[in-house]
């Protein structure tokens, strides 16, 4: 009796059917009595075994190719999902573009392959032999000029020298950067102008103290000596009357200087009454009709908000008197529900061009508002009057005061 030799089963189960086909033939070798049948059975078994070997070799040969195809499909899916424009260029011709490139450059999906010069005319025609990145301005599909960062890298595509171009749209980033630079320049200019204004105010106060107050005190001193030395009672009374008159004028001048430094009405009356008083003081006897709309605030604002609001209103009303040639003025202050208060000052005067040269007062007002986290807006046009709206934080004064035991 012939012995059946066992072979180890292959690990891949898809090859097991070929072995199963060979089992009857191998079994026949055990029971077959005729040599011819034995030879036929062995032939069938060897044929099945050979077929299984061929299948295993075919699988081994095709596995790298299948892996390559899967790798290519993965790369294609990644290219289609990229948010940046991806181009493959061969001999100055774009042979591949992903959907992001079509959106960025305004290309239809069925548009024939364009030349690189047609898509990126600002790019140098000779592409580099080493990877590099450069900034380019190009025309987008919507006609807008785009700021882009283009990365170029040489590589082999299907065995041919090619270049990979990755175009990243940085238009918004560049616009933000330019706005930030402009804001920094404006802030530096405002800081310089504010310093100049402060120095001018100090010089003006120093001059007033020296020229007006100092001379008035000197004059009062001389008048007092004259009254003391005057033997005639009637003349002495006149000298004392002149002395009292000069004293009253000096007190009034000191009050004006004190108002410039810190309005006493803010401390004594509060913001609402101080604004009303300021409007009457500046606009009375100016042939200007004015209306004040200031409902009572729920609480007194913090000192810094009061001071800023008062100074902006003071500067606005002074500008109206000096430059606007207005016939009427409206001033309002309202507390808003979201922790802000809104100051509005409008006039029917000449107005001005916002894009033209601006006065120093407007820059100082905007700087004051921004300095405490507020915002100032100006609406005006030549011949259309001016409206200044200022939003300032409304923080109750009690919330900013130190509590008991605070240093």
Automatic annotation (TrEMBL):
<dbReference type="GO" id="GO:0046872">
    <property type="term" value="F:metal ion binding"/>
</dbReference>
<keyword id="KW-0808">Transferase</keyword>
<dbReference type="Pfam" id="PF02518">
    <property type="entry name" value="HATPase_c"/>
</dbReference>
<keyword id="KW-0902">Two-component regulatory system</keyword>
<keyword id="KW-0418">Kinase</keyword>
<keyword id="KW-0479">Metal-binding</keyword>
<keyword id="KW-0408">Iron</keyword>
<dbReference type="GO" id="GO:0051539">
    <property type="term" value="F:4 iron, 4 sulfur cluster binding"/>
</dbReference>
<dbReference type="GO" id="GO:0000155">
    <property type="term" value="F:phosphorelay sensor kinase activity"/>
</dbReference>
<dbReference type="InterPro" id="IPR011712">
    <property type="entry name" value="Sig_transdc_His_kin_sub3_dim/P"/>
</dbReference>
<dbReference type="GO" id="GO:0046983">
    <property type="term" value="F:protein dimerization activity"/>
</dbReference>
<protein>
    <recommendedName>
        <fullName>Oxygen sensor histidine kinase NreB</fullName>
        <ecNumber>2.7.13.3</ecNumber>
    </recommendedName>
</protein>
<dbReference type="GO" id="GO:0005737">
    <property type="term" value="C:cytoplasm"/>
</dbReference>
<dbReference type="GO" id="GO:0016020">
    <property type="term" value="C:membrane"/>
</dbReference>
<comment type="function">
    <text>Member of the two-component regulatory system NreB/NreC involved in the control of dissimilatory nitrate/nitrite reduction in response to oxygen. NreB functions as a direct oxygen sensor histidine kinase which is autophosphorylated, in the absence of oxygen, probably at the conserved histidine residue, and transfers its phosphate group probably to a conserved aspartate residue of NreC. NreB/NreC activates the expression of the nitrate (narGHJI) and nitrite (nir) reductase operons, as well as the putative nitrate transporter gene narT.</text>
</comment>
<keyword id="KW-0004">4Fe-4S</keyword>
<feature type="domain" description="Histidine kinase">
    <location>
        <begin position="208"/>
        <end position="396"/>
    </location>
</feature>
<keyword id="KW-0411">Iron-sulfur</keyword>
<keyword id="KW-0963">Cytoplasm</keyword>
<dbReference type="InterPro" id="IPR005467">
    <property type="entry name" value="His_kinase_dom"/>
</dbReference>
<dbReference type="InterPro" id="IPR003594">
    <property type="entry name" value="HATPase_dom"/>
</dbReference>
<dbReference type="InterPro" id="IPR035965">
    <property type="entry name" value="PAS-like_dom_sf"/>
</dbReference>
<dbReference type="Pfam" id="PF07730">
    <property type="entry name" value="HisKA_3"/>
</dbReference>
<dbReference type="InterPro" id="IPR004358">
    <property type="entry name" value="Sig_transdc_His_kin-like_C"/>
</dbReference>
<dbReference type="InterPro" id="IPR050482">
    <property type="entry name" value="Sensor_HK_TwoCompSys"/>
</dbReference>
<dbReference type="InterPro" id="IPR036890">
    <property type="entry name" value="HATPase_C_sf"/>
</dbReference>
